[in-house]
């Protein structure tokens, strides 16, 4: 595997940019290629079969463009579609559930963990199962918070409405006395401060995207796949902006809207953004 | 055309059930076949090309099943895709924009009309153009209210959060002193009472679905396509429940969720609900 290749990231839309941000911060020497499936967003209310089909098409698309590793930023796709994706691409595939669960188990002291995610992720029980594999005594309470996505995309993360909606969604989790909460949807880190305020500062928030980025750092090192930057070799500190032209962004629809929300999430819009069609890629998949 | 055939209704998902409800109330003798494109919802944040493609696939699907008329319940599809749909089906196609605009022009006394809709519908300017065709002096102010969709689907139509979000979205419209407001997205009638309360009871709310149902009544009569019910002919009042087994519902994904939200919107879930795949129907379309 060529270590100069970019890391592929796919998401159902714009939410995965929080995972891109985390990867970018943890891996300043790497280049990224991001696919947001904005034509078919959201995945969180869709069925297993449909999420699998979309996820495989997206993964094949990035794989054929040349990547050294695929990060599935979307929690729903990570929860439902990793086995299907792994059958269809030639690179290692990393979802956000396992690293998120791992970080939560590491962080909890009381063994009481809350998880907030999309309806599909909650229904799949993916986080509960991943946590149980790591600590069978841990108690997990999961809740879907669908309105958080719109609040984040509207730029209302810091509003009275967000606070009020958070209080409603997180009521049961708060009462169940968790000490750790997994932000199990890529949009939720945008509402991080409201969530923290609602649950109190003693509750530890786990951003699955950040946990995944740290996992990828280790994995690249152990597989000797990390990119060695010229600048770094010469002892020059590397400076990289989010969304600069070393990273390429694909969307399946509505590029202008993607750029607008990207600016809201990251503070800058992608320099290199391209709209593509990816339907029917799953026919290429050898079962 | 066989007047016994059902009326076809398609929507991007569950929101069109408010249009189904209006049609059902206005046309108790008719049978309906409804397609909710739940695999690809929402349309309101997607581009023209994508909305056209989805709309044509849905319309072809219903047309090949045998309908006497097609109602495009989705405002976004009505705003963007009617010309493309009309090229590809053999029946009359009625969108919700023109009837909604018509009712608004009829209702306004000051000629100041507000329109709330999805981002795509607002961007298309479809309501403004339709209103201008009817009354070139009318003043129109349009605003997108994306969070209303999630609030309706969550069952939070009557909550403090809905009131607060409505106050925010409707601020400019309220200040612009409109006397009529078009509910230009199928979900918005679910929040009708909150919207009315926010703007004050002197503002007339126009439900485009209801306006469309009244238009369809007239159209069926003038085309001699209305179904004559045996009971009605014998002078027996017809009783029909919403969602009974005379109406058939198709969804492209997540039937269980559709049934749950249908119950929330209509008070009863469909008796006859079927999941289908409709991808690739547009290849059948003769340009």
Query: Hey, which two chains have the biggest interface?
Result: A-B, 28 and 28 residues
Oligomer: homodimer
* Biggest sheet record of chain A: 6 strands, parallel
Distance between the termini of chain A: 23 Å
Question: Element order, helices and strands of chain A?
Answer: EHEHEHEHEHHEHHHEHEHHEHE
Can I get a quick summary?
Chain A is of the alpha/beta class. Chain A has helices at residues 17-26, 48-65, 75-88, 97-107, 119-124, 126-134, 147-154, 160-169, 171-175, 192-199, 208-222, 230-233, 255-266, and strands at 7-11, 32-36, 69-72, 93-95, 112-117, 139-144, 180-184, 204-207, 248-251, 273-275.
Entry keywords:
2 domains, alpha/beta, Rossmann fold, 6-stranded parallel sheet, globular, 287 residues, 4-stranded parallel sheet, 10 strands, homodimer, 13 helices, 16% strand
Task: Tell me what you see in this structure.
The structure is a homodimer of 287-residue chains. Chain A has 287 residues and is an alpha/beta fold. The first copy, chain A, has two domains: 7-96 and 210-284, 3-Layer(aba) Sandwich (Rossmann fold); 98-207, Rossmann fold (3-Layer(aba) Sandwich), CATH 3.40.50. Chain A is built from 13 helices and ten strands. Chain A has helices at residues 17-26, 48-65, 75-88, 97-107, 119-124, 126-134, 147-154, 160-169, 171-175, 192-199, 208-222, 230-233, 255-266, and strands at 7-11, 32-36, 69-72, 93-95, 112-117, 139-144, 180-184, 204-207, 248-251, 273-275. Chain A has a six-stranded parallel β-sheet, with helices on both faces. In chain A, strands 6-5-7-8 form a four-stranded parallel β-sheet. In chain A, α10 (192-199) links the parallel β7 and β8 (204-207). In chain A, α2 (48-65) crosses α3 (75-88), α4 (97-107) packs across α6 and α8 (160-169) crosses α10. The radius of gyration of chain A is 18 Å and the shape is globular. Chain A starts with 6 loop residues before the first strand and ends in a 12-residue tail after the last strand. The model of chain A has no long low-confidence stretch (mean pLDDT 92). The interface between A and B is medium-sized, with 28 and 28 residues.
